[in-house]
Amino acid sequence: MARRTMSLLPQWSTRVFSVELDGAAHYFSIQERHRGEEAPRVFSKVQDHDRCYSLLVCGGDRVGRAKFYAELKEKLLRDLPPECDVSPMSSFLPNVKDSLIRGYFLKDNSGSSSPSERLLRDLIRRDPVLVCSYLKGKDGQLCQHLWSHADSQTVEMSKGYYVVPSQPPEYHPSTLNIINSDVFYSFEDACEVLKECGDIIPEATSVMELLPSRAPARSKPDFPVIVIEGLDATGKTTLTESLRDTLGATLLQSPPQCLSPLRARFDQEPPLVRRAFYALGNYITAEQVGQEGMKTPVIVDRFWHSTAAYAIATAVGGPVCNLPVEGSEVYRWPSDLLQPSLVILLTLDPEERKRRLRDRGQGKTEEEQELDHNQLFRLKVEEAYRRIIGPACVTVDASPSADQVLQQVQLLIRGKCHL
Ligand SMILES: Nc1ncnc2c1ncn2[C@@H]1O[C@H](COP(=O)(O)OP(=O)(O)OP(=O)(O)O)[C@@H](O)[C@H]1O
Ligand SMILES: Nc1ccn([C@H]2C[C@H](O)[C@@H](COP(=O)(O)O)O2)c(=O)n1
To answer: pTM score, two decimals?
Structure first.
């Protein structure tokens, strides 16, 4: 643990820390010397008697880290005193890709530091975490003390760093680690994740056995390939089935049928593993498209746009303006994935979508419930859909009757694919 702490120290003083407190992001950095002047308070909501700590998840392998981060919040909420608030926190090097470390900020106003500190000492001894405490210095300024663990003893490092407010970064920190943690741009990169979890998730081996040996050739099939995208209950199933019947097409879906028995298992996993699973589903579907597309037109219910848009919207906290800017490399199409002839995005007024969901009355996945409750998340998914290129999607208003939507889409297909 001591060695890991030390390996981060060279960058420690150039890092920015972000804490989500009361719905707002607070950014701070640290300084070795006190500049003399009174620094503005970083956390206006932190009272003088509150004890504050941060926990950053680092070290170990990326699958272990992702799983530990997902479990840590539950552990903290379960084992800390109820007077202790737990908020998301991160540390990053501004505009440096892959530099984000996630964790939690604890604000303890229980009046006794013992239970929290016991838990933190236990965590630092056993788990891949860096722990800091925040104390007022002699001059009244807040200082960050990095804990270290050596020889079975946890000690607060004697030297404190002064905490000073920092400007919000140009790019939201959660965008720094998207590539290869949330979105995978090649078959190899997504496969790598499943290979790494074979020991702890036996189902990963089952997925590997269903995969082609490499990314299927990207050569265009003889017949057009049309992908239908959209949030749940926008009418994808209804439309894709009608298109299959009217065009004499083959209907496929991503994730493909063969992954259905494994899907619920991967939906429980942290984003790194879950998104790799969905990314690989697209390659299995692409292989099927390659075969069927030599015989008939192919309609695909969800494909890459869904994989990338949901992953990006989940990874990026806060409002739509936190998304990576339009034209960012995160919206690019994977270089080894078959490109459809046309991608249609069905959009629907949120109230009508809710009505259709209610009428359908089926169970919902956690992400679907999130879409329902969280207006911001829905807006981010829709905006991410629109920003993806190579091919970009064509938006169709799905509020008219099913027949009218079908006609509108048939017109687009005739124009673009000459069917
Ligand atoms: N144009 C339409 N007008 C009115 N109702 C519709 C229309 N299209 C579909 N519906 C109804 O809305 C509900 C959701 O449609 P559907 O199952 O096709 O959506 P979906 O996008 O495939 O959903 P999911 O992604 O959750 O599977 C269904 O009850 C369907 O009958
Ligand atoms: N190609 C795909 C298809 C689906 N997903 C993910 C995104 C959502 O979490 C969920 C939505 O699918 P549904 O419940 O409507 O079948 O599945 C994906 O990432 N990639």
So the answer is: 0.93
